[in-house]
Structure formats: structure tokens, C-alpha cells
Write the C-alpha cells for this entry.
Amino acid sequence: MRFRAKVVNIDCIHHFTNVVNTISKLLKKCSIRLTKEKMFFILPDQVANGGVSMWCELKQANFFDEYRMDGVNEYELNEIYLEIVAENLCRAIKSANNAKSLKIKLTKKQVPCLTVEIELPSLSSTARIVTHDIPVSVIPSSLWGEYQEPEMPDFHVSLCLPPLKTVKHIVERLKNLSSYLTLSGNQEGDFALKVETELVSATTRFSDLEIPPYDPDGDSQAPSKLWPPSEMASARIDVKKLLQFLAGQQINPYKVICNIVDQSAVHFFLVHDDISLQYFIPVVAV
């Protein structure tokens, strides 16, 4: 197995740094899937066990000036799967804000590592290189089936969220009232954030939000036709998990789609030209 990638363009370095920083705030450990065309950051499906799951997909050509990957098998298994502590990768590339180049490669030290090499500007003719060796675990091919793209849930409502900064500000206020928050929405563009306890009930409502278009010939999925457009679908979730998602967004998506599976889960889909990020939060029973 071999992997080597290099970024020279400073805007691409900043963009990649923001992606990794977002990932590190969403989860502690993640898996990295490397293919010829794409790089993925994955947290496998934990929703059934009460945890979140995530799928982030990057087109390597939009980030890297050089990209070389040779997987387990050139023909059938030409991919690489690694497990890494996301925060370690984030810390390693933080010093790349003013870098001349950023290199990432798979190396073999005492253990397998992702080695990050950052070339910093220098007043002398000698380059200044900062190197970080980040331990990784190689995931055997027998387990790759657990790291495939999650299926889009059969949701009841799909709508575009208001600006994330606005939602984050509201949720931060509501978290002081309760540990749980209910998201509700319908296909007419109504959306609500609500907390309810024995002592207090507080709700923030939005109306006339954009409804994502449905393309029957594309990859988009339509909400259930059996769900009345005016009826609110609801999901009660852990407010900390929602805040974790909202606090980690540094990739500046131009649209955030919220799909609600009534009394089951919330699925967030961040729309960006270079990145696709999906995030699932399960409901919490009353």
C-alpha cells in the first residue's frame, strides 16, 4: 500500500484545514477511506446504538496538486482504509496556515503512520520543514463493508435550514433549559426548535423556508408521499449532539438540508461544491 498527497495552493491548504477541523469537532476517532478519485472521513453507522454517524466525501482533485494512491490490490481492492484520532490530524496541520506546501503520506515507523510534512516560509535558502507522525490502524479488507456510504433514510420532511449561526445561537440559549431539544418541520417550509420540561416550554419557529427540489432522475430523494405536507414531523434529540454539529461547521456550506424521520432520526446534508457531508443524529426516547 502506498499513499502520498501534496497541496501547494494556500487556499486549498486552508480549505483542507477547515474540513479536518470540522471533522475533529464532530467526533473523536474516524476512519479514512482513500480511493483514486476521493478521500472520505467516516464514522460508521452508530445510530442504532444511540450514537451519531457521519460521512464526509472530498474530491481529491479539488484539494491536492499531487495525489498518488496504490491500494491493497490494484484491480479488485484498490483502496486503503485507516482509523485515526481526528484531533491528532487536526493538530498536525494547524501550523500550515502560512505553509508553502503540505504533504501527507502513509509511512511505516514502529507502527503505520500518516506523516504530515509542512514546509514553512524561510528567509534563508534552507527550507523549514515541520514533520508530524500520526499513528493509524490499517482496517483489513474483511471489514470494509462496514464503511460504505449510508443509505438515505426514508424521511418524512426535508427542508433547508436557516443560517447555521442563527440556529446555533438559538440552540445555545435553549440548552440552558433542557438537555433535549425537539426539531419539527413540514413540507410547507415551517420549522421549529422546542424544549419542554415540567417547569418551562420554549419554542422558536421559522416559516417559508426553502424546500429542496426533488429530481427523479438524479440522486435526490423525495419525502414520503404518505406524509401530509402540512403535518409536522418531529425528532427529540440530545442538544449536545446538535451543538457539536453546529459548532464544527467551518467549511461554509451554501446550503444545509435537514431531513426528519418522524420519531426516529435527523439527517443533515451539507451542500458544498467541493465537499459532501452527511451527519445523522438519532432520537432520544421520552
Q: What stands out?
A: The chain is about 15% helix and 40% strand. The CA atoms of residues 191 and 206 lie 5 Å apart. The first helix runs from residue 10 to 26.
